[in-house]
């Protein structure tokens, strides 16, 4: 199967226009036959910098939840595949920084960001769903969002639960993640697709996102890296069996070799 | 304080000569005032490739345990500091791939390699001491050995137990570790010193060690990297307070932000 990302640049407060631009990008630039799994950034349709619940409430509601699902399903239908998309989820309890795994006819899985970054905790509730793996016709897919990368336990938990591929929508501002995902893919022998945004939000000065969306294969090799700036996409051939075999040589099996009795 | 490594090249079966060469290297090349903590490689005095217990038994016994301790203490006295050294530990139950943290007048800590690599499990018992942190006058020091790096739980456990610096004797043959230690230092906000060996053992063909001993600071920056080949040493100024503060910004504390209820 072929999987990859679109490094997209949503504009704050312009959800409908962002959706229009995303559809146009896909129509113009993507061959639907060349992609089975498409990972989009964190908060892909709204932009990132909503400093308080009031401002976030203008782009997060039941209506916008539905709009996100509809948009993702439409794209999934277009590529005859699946889409991972980040969005600010509205619930009666409050907002979550969430992502969905969507097919054309259904929502397969939802994830709520477990480790909130910076000011996000003023706006979002911490994720309460844990790290779950979804068995799909394409393979076993797990999701984590942006800052979750910093905590090795996130990718580890997904991998131990069977994830062959970690879909990782991001809105990265720190310079570390793209480099550190090397360790996440290698130590878990999984594929990772970090779909970052680029561009900037004019918020508390200017917040600049770091682009360089990146795909690692289980051996830690980079198979795709987007530029720092500019919208971009890439899809690569993925053999999920490579993420199933946890033997790294004739002796060592990286999961069976674990010794949890000595771990915190 | 100043801490660092000697990238040394022991010769198989020539323990006494290796000790002589190591002392000469230190006498000739190292200013004792410039080092407080010296990390030596895994199996620093014996070499690596003993394919069975019989051959290992020729360099691992009570006599050699004592020789290792005496050598490390002598060096510790010379630098008026502490030494971490890897050695094949002899016990009545069998051999361990171990390391010691030694001062001039005492052994402060011992570690036994938890995750054995490749053929090692035919020769060594898996470590049974867990990951422990030793409070010393220099700071809180933890040890892990070589392949332990692959398991994020190793460095994580040491850091959660308070380690400010992870001393990491290695005999690396795979090309990944030096790069992946970026993640270990960053995700735990600790100093890491990977003291690798270089050179080769003539064993089952030729086993080539990868050199590039490396020191990372808590922010993931490389402060020292040795060449691939050739003996080498480096010592850098270390401020362990930087490994005590686990805040990476005004909001996020990488330990307090953990959510173990969702981790495997």
Features:
homodimer, about 260 residues, alpha/beta, Nitrilase/N-carbamoyl-D-aminoacid amidohydrolase, 7-stranded mixed beta sheet, 6-stranded mixed beta sheet, 6 helices, about 25% helix, globular
Describe this structure in words.
Chain A has 264 residues and is of the alpha/beta class. Chain A has a single domain, classed as 4-Layer Sandwich (Nitrilase/N-carbamoyl-D-aminoacid amidohydrolase), CATH 3.60.110. In chain A, 24% of the residues lie in helices and 27% in strands. Chain A has helices at residues 15-29, 53-57, 62-79, 120-123, 152-160, 177-188; strands at residues 2-7, 37-39, 82-90, 95-102, 107-112, 124-125, 133-135, 140-143, 165-169, 191-195, 200-202, 206-208, 214-216, 222-225, 232-237. In chain A, strands 1, 2, 3, 4, 5, 6 and 15 form a seven-stranded mixed beta sheet that branches. A six-stranded mixed beta sheet of chain A has the order 7-8-9-10-13-14, covered by helices on one side. A two-stranded antiparallel ribbon of chain A has the order 11-12. In chain A, helix 5 packs parallel to helix 6. The mean pLDDT of chain A is 96. Chains A and B meet through helix 5 and helix 6 of A and helix 5 and helix 6 of B.
């Amino acid at each position: 199967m072929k999987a990859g990302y679109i490094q997209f640049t949503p504009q704050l407060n312009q959800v409908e226009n962002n959706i229009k631009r995303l559809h146009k990008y896909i129509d113009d630039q993507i061959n639907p036959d060349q992609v089975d799994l498409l990972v989009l950034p964190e908060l892909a349709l709204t932009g990132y910098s909503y400093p308080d619940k009031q401002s976030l409430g203008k782009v997060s509601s039941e209506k916008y939840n539905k709009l996100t699902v509809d948009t993702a399903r439409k794209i999934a239908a277009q590529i005859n595949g699946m889409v991972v998309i980040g969005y600010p989820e509205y619930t009666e309890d409050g907002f979550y920084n969430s992502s969905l795994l969507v097919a054309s006819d259904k929502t397969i899985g939802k994830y709520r960001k477990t480790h909130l970054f910076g000011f996000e905790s003023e706006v979002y509730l911490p994720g309460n769903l844990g790290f779950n793996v979804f068995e799909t016709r394409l393979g076993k897919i797990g999701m984590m969002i942006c800052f979750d990368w910093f905590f090795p336990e996130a990718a580890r938990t997904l991998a131990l639960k069977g994830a062959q591929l970690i879909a990782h929508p991001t809105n990265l501002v720190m310079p570390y993640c793209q480099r550190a995902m090397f360790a996440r893919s290698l130590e878990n022998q999984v594929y990772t697709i970090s779909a970052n945004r680029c561009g900037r939000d004019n918020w508390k000065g200017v917040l600049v996102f770091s682009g360089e969306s990146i795909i690692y294969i289980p051996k830690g090799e980079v198979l795709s890296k987007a530029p720092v700036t500019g919208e971009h996409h890439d899809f690569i051939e993925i053999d999920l069996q490579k993420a199933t075999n946890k033997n790294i040589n004739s002796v060592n099996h990286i999961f069976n070799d674990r010794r949890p009795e000595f771990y915190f």
